[in-house]
Amino acid sequence: MDSLLDFRGKVAIITGAASGFGALLAKGLHERGAQLVLGDINLPGLDKASAEYGDKAVLLQCDVSKEEDCEALVKAALEKFGRLDIAVNNAGVGHEMLATHEQQGDIFDRQYEVNLKSVMIGMKHQIPAMFKEGGSILNVSSMAGIGGAPKLAPYAAVKHGVIGLTKTAAVEYAKQNIRVNAICPFFSPTNIGAGMLKEDGVEDMLVRGCPMKRYGTVQEMVNAMMLILSPGNSYMTGQAIAVDGAVSAI
Fold it and tell me: Single Gene Ontology BP term (predicted)?
């Protein structure tokens, strides 16, 4: 196995692991030797997605907006495997595309609870578990976290917040050898993204606005996530990595 992608002996938490980035990342880390603690609010979907992992994985129903559920994932890692090396705060939700003046407060509240507060309370419990050995945390932001996102103001606001949390934690815990990074994918057809494609003209707009003239696959995003998490990538921290087909280069 290539040492850059050798995760043998590593224990990883992944939220939102029943589908999309989370499910595919869990598969990739499992194939490369990692032991897993997988959380998702959709427990039947999680069980189906991880049926082949056996005693290499712990599955927990997890509502990431609840602190006790985020804490339970860390406790499970320590009780089952004795350590925590990697945490991927991936769970998230989208919302209907509406102009800013049409947005409702309950939309923002939901975005804050699931897409931003969850990252804060997740790291609150993940970081102390890494004090002894160090570790790597990856927060899933978005291109909407580093630029404007028309008709997605609440989503853009909280994804910008994810990057703020990421950079702050990276500085605070660098001396403990805890790396904290964010990935900022361009559009990719996960469960969240698929809903956007139902809007008239959105797919054409996305493709037209990307220099590569296509949006990214889920696998391409997960490949980047594994490289960011790689134990060999030991000097990268505090970064918001755009994986975007050169959209951010324009």
Answer: fatty acid biosynthetic process
Domain boundaries, the chain: 3-242
Two structure tokens written together for 47? 């069980």
Q: What is the pLDDT of residue 197?
A: 61
Say if residue 104's pLDDT is above 90. no
Instruction: Give the residue-averaged pLDDT of 110-132.
Output: 97
Give the residue numbers annotated as catalytic, written as ranges: 155
pTM score of the predicted model? 0.94
20 sits in the region (left: phi over 0; alpha: psi -120 to 50; else beta) called left
Burial environment of residue 97 by CB neighbours within 10 A (0 to 12, 13 to 18, 19 or more): middle
Task: Tell me how many degrees the CA angle 115-82-177 measures, rounded to the nearest 5.
Answer: 60
Fold classification of 3-242 is Rossmann fold (3.40.50)
Residues 6 or more apart in contact with residue 15 via CB below 8 angstroms: 22, 39, 40, 62, 64, 70, 73, 88, 89, 90, 91, 118, 122
Phi/psi of residue 75, each to 5°?
A: -60, -40
**Which pLDDT does position 229 carry in this prediction?**
98
The residue among 93, 78, 92, 94 whose CA lies nearest residue 13 is: 78
pLDDT in tens, 45-55: 999 999 999 99
Q: Per-residue pLDDT averaged across 208-221, rounded?
A: 91
